[in-house]
Design a protein that fits this description.
Nucleotidyltransferase, domain 5; six-stranded mixed sheet; 12 helices; 26% strand; globular; binds FE2/S2 (inorganic) cluster
Length: 556
């Protein structure tokens, strides 16, 4: 056996010779980025080993690390097997998502307090009746009417946020958040559908997710000093795939044409049946979903942004791994979604990382040169989505890339004070932001693909409704990293049309805000289900104009 020690976590494991380094680190609780789930294609599972430890792993051949990175001691954990005792200094920020910035706030939404679950004390029998609507769920001995809680949970493809709410007062008592543990098996929705389409894969994805949600329920309850068994209802908001995986529904039909739904939401499931550790009488409400790719996160967003009652032309865009969007014209709604890919989450980007400590989140270019900021104001270690959009947007605005996205590093761009940032890594030009963090030509291509997908969705949805960008009165940007973006960068990139300048508002995590409103006010569920039934869902997968518009949208 070989001994693997992780001093910063206080963990020592014994493993068989030949054990995968990635699996060993996962067992130790290190949440290493591994969006390709160890197939050796994403290059994200890099681990730095001290020079004297390097001989204790054997790495399969691959070309995902540069010579310079290998010399620094980096290996790919999924391609490395352990062949001796190892001591690994893991960055504590990698352990269980610590240090990650997860957007849990949304704009508050005032709703009347009418929860689905209620309690009444019967003095004659000295017991408390628990009701779901008018249906008796059960009876508890004694007077427990003072203890009635609920959970609003946003299940994002990348992150999870749970809010514990007192259903008697409507007050939020505590929140908990983390990475979605499923992300280790694949960063995007399609890879989860693929894994979840086999029974053991589905069990793994659901089991890991529910275990994490149970930790959140316990954590939030502990913060508030309440018993998780006094939580009687949870609302799960998330895209269609996340909802299916959370309740153990086979997602296979979501991954292939004609993308049919086997479950449409607007329903309850029993908490115990899915392993959620709240009251044994507890229920989980799933908001309505509109299609395979316009899910409950968007119906929650429609509620949170009050789109059915908003006059004028409003465009709501949830930017994430999928670009989901809704166009409201005096309350009449059209929705669609496009696959932006994980670039905005910092994935598939050479120095990309999630929005955690040390991530470069702001970049600006000016006559004074290049300026940047990192999350936590610490040493820069990578580039997260907002920093990526900033640097590419700034280069596009200042002539550092041409309209086709090509680096202008050979002096064709005007002489700029940040000219010295151009360098070569492994013979290829890169734009060095700071220290180890740089932007490659390939990264610019990833941004182009992602922004073109969202822009094409916007253009086609406007066209479907006979509108031009200038006719849009308000643009609401939602999503797990929406607050961290700059309008200027989104416009410089061409992700948003220039006509949107001055009309953009960042509305935060509307999936969670909407879930909380549904938890507190059950009549809103019926109203939202009726609205969802009237939304015109534009399927871009079958739309012949999508490819043309997408190609046109690639330009900066
Ligand atoms: S290359 Fe190792 S997990 Fe993707």
């Amino acid at each position: 056996m070989n001994k693997v020690t992780l001093p910063s976590l206080g963990v020592t494991l014994e493993v068989e010779p030949g054990a995968s380094l990635l699996e060993t680190l996962r067992h130790a609780g290190v949440d290493l980025e591994s969006p390709c789930d160890g197939s050796g294609t994403c290059g994200k599972c890099r681990v730095k080993l001290a020079a004297h430890e390097r001989a204790h792993v054997r790495e399969s051949a691959h070309d995902l690390l540069s010579d310079a990175e290998r010399e620094e001691g980096f290996v790919l954990a999924c391609q490395a097997s352990i062949c001796g005792d190892l001591e690994i200094e893991t960055d504590a920020a990698n352990a269980e998502g610590e240090g990650l910035r997860i957007l849990s706030e949304g704009h508050g939404l005032d709703v009347a307090l009418e929860p689905w679950i209620s309690k009444t004390f019967d003095p004659a029998t000295a017991s408390t009746r628990i009701l779901a609507g008018n249906t008796l769920l059960g009876v508890e001995p004694g007077d427990t009417t003072g203890r009635l809680y609920g959970l609003a949970i946003d299940i994002g493809t990348t992150t999870l946020v749970a809010a514990l709410v007192d259903l008697r007062t409507g007050c939020e008592l505590a929140t908990a958040s983390s990475l979605n543990p499923q992300a280790r098996y694949g960063q995007d929705v399609l890879s989860r559908i693929k894994l979840g389409s086999a029974p053991d894969g589905l069990a793994k994805l659901q089991g890991d997710l529910i275990a994490e949600l149970n930790r959140h329920a316990a954590d939030a309850a502990a913060q508030a000093g309440v018993d998780p068994r006094d939580i009687y209802e949870a609302v799960f908001s998330g895209n269609t795939t996340m909802l299916y995986l959370a309740v153990g529904t086979d997602p296979a039909t979501l991954g292939k044409y004609p993308y049919t739904l086997t479950r449409r939401g607007a329903e309850h499931v029993g908490a115990t049946g899915i392993g959620l550790e709240i009251s044994p009488l507890g229920l989980v409400y799933l908001p309505p979903v509109m299609s395979a790719y316009v899910g409950a996160d968007i119906t929650s967003g429609i509620l949170a942004a009050d789109l059915p009652h908003t006059k004028g032309v409003v465009l709501f865009v949830d930017i994430g791994t999928n670009g989901e969007m809704v166009l409201g014209i005096d309350g009449k709604l059209t929705a669609t979604s496009t696959a932006a890919g994980p670039a905005f989450e910092g994935m598939n980007i050479t120095c990309g990382m999630r929005a955690g400590r040390g991530a470069v989140e702001r970049v600006s270019l000016s006559d004074d040169g290049l300026a940047f900021a990192t999350i936590g104001s610490t040493e820069p270690s990578g580039l997260c989505g907002s920093g990526l959009l900033d640097v590419v947007g700034e280069l596009a605005a200042h002539g550092g890339v041409d309209k086709n996205g090509r680096f202008q590093h050979n002096g064709t761009a005007p002489d700029k004070p940040w000219k010295s940032q151009w360098e070569r890594v492994d013979g290829k030009p890169v734009f060095r932001i700071t220290g180890p963090v740089y932007l490659s030509q390939k990264d610019v291509r990833q941004v182009q693909l992602a922004k073109a997908a969202i822009r094409a969705g916007i253009e086609l949805m406007l066209k479907e409704n006979g509108l031009t960008p200038a006719r849009v009165d308000r643009v609401l940007i939602a999503g797990s990293f929406g607050f961290h973006l700059r309008t200027e960068s989104l416009i410089n990139l061409g992700l948003l049309p220039r006509a949107f300048a001055g009309r953009v508002e960042f509305v935060g995590n509307t999936s969670r805000t909407g879930a909380q409103a549904l938890l507190l006010n059950h009549p809103a569920r019926g109203r939202l289900a009726r609205v969802a039934g009237t939304v015109n869902v534009l399927e871009l997968a079958n739309n012949p104009a999508f490819e043309t518009t997408f190609l046109q949208s690639l330009a900066f």
